[in-house]
Automatic annotation (TrEMBL):
PROSITE patterns noted in UniProt: PFKB_KINASES_1, PFKB_KINASES_2
Taxonomic path: Bacteria, Pseudomonadati, Pseudomonadota, Gammaproteobacteria, Enterobacterales
Domain Carbohydrate kinase PfkB: 10-295
Classification via NCBIfam families: 1-PFK, PRK10294.1
Name of the molecule in the record: Phosphofructokinase
Organism the protein comes from: Pseudenterobacter timonensis
Signal peptide stretch: none
PANTHER family per the UniProt record, alphabetical: 1-PHOSPHOFRUCTOKINASE-RELATED (PTHR46566), ATP-DEPENDENT 6-PHOSPHOFRUCTOKINASE ISOZYME 2 (PTHR46566:SF2)
Gene3D superfamilies: 3.40.1190.20
GO molecular function, one term: 6-phosphofructokinase activity
Keyword ATP-binding: yes
Amino acid sequence: MVQIYTLTLSPSLDSATITPQIYPEGKLRCSAPVFEPGGGGINVARAITHLGGKATAIFPAGGATGEHLVSLLDDERVPVQSVPAKDWTRQNLHVHVETSGEQYRFVMPGAALTEDEFRQLEEKVLTIESGSLLVISGSLPPGVNTDKFTQLIRAAQAKGLRLIVDSSGDALMAALEPGNLELVKPNQKELSALVRRELTQPDDVRTAAEELVTSGKAHRVVVSLGPQGALAVDKTGFVQVVPPPMKSQSTVGAGDSMVGAMTLKLAEGASLLEMARYGVAAGSAATINQGTRLCSLSDTQKIVDYLNKN
Ligand SMILES: Nc1ncnc2c1ncn2[C@@H]1O[C@H](COP(=O)(O)OP(=O)(O)OP(=O)(O)O)[C@@H](O)[C@H]1O
Ligand SMILES: [Mg+2]
């Protein structure tokens, strides 16, 4: 069986709370916070667990917040390989305002990584058995420049790991430099920044995704399009997957659920269409729930059944 690992360089301990109204100066009374693990790769590993698979999360953990993060993942039965870090793991805050229904997401900068901490994370990656899938997701923390990131990807590929990347901006650009990524999942904005042009016409997104495949950057590109689903491209062609109309409550975790689902399908050797359908189903399943919840297996299965019939 193909093993799955995820790498999160900028993990977080997320807390979610509810307040009746939001206004300046006065005290905003909030409900007791609910803590959840956060950070791209960590959420991908959690989504894979929700879907009945197994993925080991590799990440730096610092201070009491880092310990809390590790214990939350233990509770969820997500296998962890953490590297102790000096800087405390960041804490993000998600506030749901009851009267307006608005969501506020306060995102702190990632904890800085020292050279030695980065080296230890790299060592963990380079001991993964050849042929395994490694999902690298999320932003780069202070202390990690894009060159180091590109080198890590090259070294992982030289060890025979198959890479899946979900990131943005310079980090995404740096990840694509070595080429041969198994899968990359930009949203439309990330893809547009990557190819340095606006994607306005219906065919623009497809053309840009095809360029990444034909230039050898990635074997598969799945462009996620929010409520419009996704466009998936590989060397054999492209497929478009549109989710059923649904009442979305919160899109938090949609991208990570989608990447988790597609990684599971890649591990099974599924086709491009099967992978894209399962990814869209899990992404859309994540939006059914209010708050920060990821996809559930039953919602994902219901949506994928619909997609297979229509
Ligand atoms: N409003 C929505 N309604 C239905 N499905 C949605 C909605 N938003 C997202 N999805 C589903 O989730 C998938 C990923 O969402 P999206 O394109 O927003 O990714 P993203 O921009 O990477 O999100 P994230 O903010 O989580 O990183 C979509 O392909 C779609 O299947
Ligand atoms: Mg995303």
